[in-house]
Amino acid sequence: MKINCTFVASLLPALMLTACHTGPKTVDFPLIESANTTTLDIAKVELNDTATVVHVNAYFRPHYWIRIDSKTYLRAEGEKYALTDAQGITPDSLFWMPESGEASFTLFFQPLPKRTRSFDFIESDCADCFKLFGVDLTGKETYDIPEGIPAEALKLDGNAPVPEPVFKSGETTLEVRLLHHRKELGTEQNIYVNTLNGVQEEYTAPVDSATHTAIFKFRQYGPAEVLLPMTGSIQVAPGEHAVVYIDQRGSGQRIVSRRKGAVAKPFRSLYAEGTYASLNNLISSRTDWPVWSMNLYNGKFADYRMTSKAYAAHVTNTYKALSDSIAADSLPPLMKAWMQLSLQEEAVAAMLGGNYFREHNYRCMHNEWNRNPIKGIEPMKPEDQAEICKLFDVNNPQLLMGAQVSDYVGNVVYSDGAWMETAGIRTGLIPSLRKYVLLVDKVQKGTLTQADLKVFGPEDSAFYVEALEAMQKDIAAKLEAVKDKAVIEHTPDVPVKDLFDAIVAPYKGKVVFVDFWNTWCGPCRASIKAIEPLKDTELKSDRLVWIYIANETSPVVKYKTMIPGIKGKHFRLNDEQWNYLCKKFHIDGIPSYVLVDKDGSYSLRNDLRDHNRLVKTLAEKVGQ
């Protein structure tokens, strides 16, 4: 075969010219795989021969600052491409957000290869710096379904019945498998378990670097809901081994879906196996399910001037209208039934909490947030509260399976029981729960006796006594394990006005950091967790004393099992002592910090809620 060499020779220069001069490449609003923040979004990426230009949109609270580190870089195929310039923001300087809470700036990096399909945006290598992963440069617009999800977790059965709550006790194992996981997204996973007694328990487990799985084991007494941060929630049955798959691209999808003009695209971030798989998977299968809610906490639900009777009528009419809307929708039957249960939970909370919600309306309207009682609001009458019983069965055990179960349990347990007498409710779920939850409190304080259990009769499920006894046994084992480690300091026996001085007096000549906290305070726990490793590194000093002050609202068992992991001196005060110190220092919430100088002078330092400032301040004080 003969080849026209002249033609080939003439074609080669043109092909080479095309390959070398393809021109700049621009990608508008690229898909983002995952991120550790929702503060930043990438609006556009320009790739040319001299730079990679990244146009950034920032979203944050007005008049608060953000910062971009000068060591920010792009990462692609294992290589780093450094930040070279910026417009609209100065690296390493504070950038104050405008009134709108939105801002834009442009960052310039060393040029990425034109063949690059995606890159990571890494705002230096510190743990809490901004990181966006898998910024797509191919024009991809949607997220695909992850591989390796079992059929049970993928299945969606909208015709399945609402599962019954499981009333038993047992050790539950929950495997959380993280899909598309990056180590920068965290080496630990947290879950929060909303228990039958209304208490939320926090658990932390390491993420296995090879399998990207975190395994939790916890004692469970009756039905419970597990909250998975930034993902959603699932129902778990006591004693089961459940598995949940979390697609961590949900963090990127949240950024993408916020973009102006963005069209909502289906994205599912949670897939579950286990007893309640049908319900958990259907709820998590879409992010655009309609929401019918009374919005009880927005301050506008009810008018504080309503009488008891008018308020009850308002709750009734609101419930009926929302219930009719759910019934008329073309939702899958299981979704309809679950939404009706959630609405019923909310309606019970609204009716029994009528005093609170009308008072809340008053405080919102008048911007009056002190604790002074509000006059002129007619107390709810039992006969009006009992109207809720005419709408549906408030004693239905399935009311423990909805989205508003915490509000339901809190109100049926702690409300005045007069409405139950009016409604003729003497047995069933609510009377049993009222006995059970109050005794759980005694278990947690270590004061439960066999005589206490006699409040349960043949009309109550055997579950409640069995659960309390199992709980007491479990707590005794925990206390035994920390018997020699949980050291609570003796509170000085002095008048309350002299208490703080007596607590810090032994440490004059040293810097004393005093942390007011409680076990139930999430921000307190988070701050303590962040500080704890520093006590053995940059804040390690025999001239720095750590004092932790809690009060008796911290359940003694939880308190004793936590403090061995918190190095320092621990004091647990009674109400009088705590309240006096709160007034003395004008403490507006916890965590709150008092810093004692070497000369014994002290002041409230809640500016140290800023972790970086706390570390810097303590290091400077100790070094002086």
What does this molecule look like?
With 624 residues, the protein is an alpha+beta fold. The chain is 31% helix and 23% strand. It has 17 helices and 24 strands. The protein has a 9-stranded antiparallel beta sheet with strand order 1-3-4-9-7-6-10-11-2. A 5-stranded mixed beta sheet has the order 22-21-20-23-24. It has a 4-stranded mixed beta sheet with strand order 15-12-18-19. β10 and β11 form a beta hairpin. α5 packs antiparallel against α6 and α11 packs parallel to α12 (462-481). The termini are far apart. Residues 1-21 have low confidence and may be disordered.
**Oligomeric description of these chains:** single chain
User: How much beta, percentage-wise?
Assistant: 15-25%
Biggest beta sheet attributes? 9 strands, antiparallel
Distance between the termini: 89 Å
So what's the overall shape? globular
- According to DSSP, the number of beta strands is 24
Taking pLDDT < 50 over at least 5 consecutive residues as the criterion, the unreliable ranges are 1-21
Helix content: 25-40%
Q: Total helix count? A: 17
| Average pLDDT reading | 92
What would you report as the Rg, rounded to the nearest angstrom?
Answer: 29 Å
Task: Kindly report the spatial arrangement of strands forming the biggest sheet.
Answer: 1-3-4-9-7-6-10-11-2
Derived from helix and strand composition plus strand pairing, the structural class reads alpha+beta
